[in-house]
Amino acid sequence: MAAHNELGNKGEEIARIFLKEKNYQILDTNWRFSKAEIDIIAKYEDILIFVEVKTRSYETFGEPELFVDEKKEDLMLDAAQVYMQQINHDWEIRFDIIGITLRQGYPPKIRHYEDAFFPEW
After folding, report:
1. What is the distance between the alpha carbons of residues 79 and 34, in angstroms, rounded to a whole number?
2. What's the pLDDT tens digit per position in 95-108?
3. Comparing C-alpha atoms, which of 56, 49, 25, 51 is closest to residue 38?
4. What DSSP state is assigned to residue 91?
5. What pTM was computed for the model?
6. The domain spanning residue 27 has which CATH number?
7. Cβ(52)–Cβ(62) under 8 Å?
8. How many domains does the chain have?
9. Residue 32 belongs to what domain range?
10. Which H or E element spans position 13?
11. How many CB atoms neighbour CB 94 within 10 A?
C-alpha cells in the first residue's frame, strides 16, 4: 500500500476513535457512490453526520482541512443524498471535516469542524 494511503487510513482510524470518544455512533466508513467516498458516516443525538477526514504528515502548505475543495464537497453532497434515500433519512444532517496532522514524534493534532459546509439543495 502506498505511504499516502497508509497515512490516510491511520488518520481515519484516529478520527473514528476521536468521534467515538465524543459519543458519536459510527454508522459506516469509506461509503462509496460513483466517484464519491464519504470517509465516516456517523450519528450524534438526532443528527446524521457526513465526515471528510484529511490527514497530512506536515503543514508546510497549510492545515489538512484546507484541502477539502468545492469539488470534494459536491461529491460528498451527491453521495449523501443517495445514502439518505437508501436509509429513508428523516432527521437533521451535517457535514463535518476533521483535519489531522501526524508528525513523527508528536501526538496527533486533531481539528474537528462541525457544519463545515452546507448543501444548497
Report:
1. 8
2. 999 999 998 889 99
3. 51
4. S
5. 0.91
6. 3.40.1350.10
7. no
8. 1
9. 3-117
10. helix 3-21
11. 16
